[in-house]
């Protein structure tokens, strides 16, 4: 089978990212073998490739927005059969016994593992996943549309929860890529007013098409004070204008796994009035189930740009340069 490995992370001139041919993996105890039909290209994959995240598995195969068909069952697997359509997301394993897992916060488990970082992911024709972390998928979507739901969608959904958006509230979204364009639709379906702030003119057009009340440049002020905001762009300098745009008691949720340095805050301008900042760390399986059920009940428009598996390097370069419309998806 064909797959991509991050042999040496780094800048575009220093990194080594190779397309290889290797045997199909054998599923271990409790695992599924999945024939990949689509894999989303996430900004987290870019952080793995560029070395923004520390190496967890040398020569890892990235990709954690995987849609495919069960092609084999490891020993001890129940509840799945060959031919089942399944999804593989970022969270791959937790200990199940620590205080976080017991409290329903498995995303904070100190022993958690992740697809495409701790274990090989979906930039491949086949991959494996623990059956306990595989997801049933809603109908009514093509495989390429489902792939971004498995991280961009789930993380956007959790970020929306973390932002404490009140009923029919005013939400600001900073950055408008794969995750943001899905979170915006969830918020709109729940009755929110959405204002989008992003540097991409094409993304601003998409935001308005999807129902945003306004769409401005990333550093602009929205036309009204915000009850909540979500920062999807990995740009720490946007924390300040996002906080300044919040009304009293407002909440900013930062959705990325990596963020550039945040400039010095001015207490009166950015935090006073009980404004607050919350981070988002991965997701729980409950988040995934709830979001996928929501996506099944409210058909979301998933905007994708397709790339063949052999052009994964180009897809990541385009993502880094903001040349991707919606979500990039690899189609083996």
Automatic annotation (TrEMBL):
<dbReference type="InterPro" id="IPR013149">
    <property type="entry name" value="ADH-like_C"/>
</dbReference>
<dbReference type="InterPro" id="IPR014187">
    <property type="entry name" value="ADH_Zn_typ-2"/>
</dbReference>
<dbReference type="InterPro" id="IPR036291">
    <property type="entry name" value="NAD(P)-bd_dom_sf"/>
</dbReference>
<dbReference type="InterPro" id="IPR013154">
    <property type="entry name" value="ADH-like_N"/>
</dbReference>
<dbReference type="Pfam" id="PF00107">
    <property type="entry name" value="ADH_zinc_N"/>
</dbReference>
<keyword id="KW-0560">Oxidoreductase</keyword>
<dbReference type="InterPro" id="IPR002328">
    <property type="entry name" value="ADH_Zn_CS"/>
</dbReference>
<protein>
    <recommendedName>
        <fullName>alcohol dehydrogenase</fullName>
        <ecNumber>1.1.1.1</ecNumber>
    </recommendedName>
</protein>
<feature type="domain" description="Enoyl reductase (ER)">
    <location>
        <begin position="10"/>
        <end position="330"/>
    </location>
</feature>
<dbReference type="GO" id="GO:0016491">
    <property type="term" value="F:oxidoreductase activity"/>
</dbReference>
<keyword id="KW-0862">Zinc</keyword>
<dbReference type="Pfam" id="PF08240">
    <property type="entry name" value="ADH_N"/>
</dbReference>
<keyword id="KW-0479">Metal-binding</keyword>
<dbReference type="InterPro" id="IPR020843">
    <property type="entry name" value="ER"/>
</dbReference>
<comment type="similarity">
    <text>Belongs to the zinc-containing alcohol dehydrogenase family.</text>
</comment>
<dbReference type="InterPro" id="IPR011032">
    <property type="entry name" value="GroES-like_sf"/>
</dbReference>
């Amino acid at each position: 089978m064909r797959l991509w490995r991050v042999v040496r992370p780094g800048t575009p001139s220093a990194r080594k990212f190779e397309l290889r041919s290797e045997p199909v993996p054998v599923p271990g105890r409790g695992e599924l073998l999945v024939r990949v039909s689509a894999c989303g290209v996430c900004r987290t994959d870019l952080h793995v490739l560029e070395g923004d995240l520390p190496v967890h598995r040398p020569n890892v195969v990235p990709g954690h927005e995987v849609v495919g068909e069960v092609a084999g069952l490891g020993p001890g697997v129940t509840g799945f059969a060959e031919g089942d359509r399944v999804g593989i997301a970022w969270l791959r394993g937790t200990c199940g016994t620590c205080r976080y897992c017991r409290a329903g916060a498995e995303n904070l488990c100190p022993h958690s593992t992740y697809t495409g970082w701790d274990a090989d992911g979906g930039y491949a024709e086949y991959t494996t996943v623990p059956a306990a972390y595989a997801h049933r998928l809603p109908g009514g979507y093509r495989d390429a549309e489902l792939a971004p739901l498995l991280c961009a969608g789930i993380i956007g959904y959790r970020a929306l929860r973390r932002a404490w958006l009140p009923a029919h509230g005013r939400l600001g979204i900073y950055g408008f890529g794969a995750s943001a364009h899905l979170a915006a639709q969830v918020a709109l379906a729940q009755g929110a007013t959405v204002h989008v702030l992003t540097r991409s003119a094409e993304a601003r057009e998409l935001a308005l098409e999807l129902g945003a009340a306004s769409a401005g440049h990333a550093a602009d002020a929205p036309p009204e004070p915000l009850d909540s905001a979500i920062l999807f762009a990995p740009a720490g300098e946007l924390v300040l204008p996002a906080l300044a745009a919040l009304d009293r008691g407002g909440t900013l949720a930062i959705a990325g796994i990596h963020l550039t340095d945040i400039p010095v805050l001015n207490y009166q301008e950015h935090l006073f009035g009980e404004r607050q900042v919350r981070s988002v760390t991965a997701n729980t399986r409950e988040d995934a189930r709830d979001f996928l059920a929501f996506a099944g009940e409210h058909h979301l428009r998933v905007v994708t740009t397709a790339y063949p598996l052999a052009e994964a390097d180009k897809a990541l370069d385009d993502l880094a340069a903001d040349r991707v419309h919606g979500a990039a998806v690899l189609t083996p």
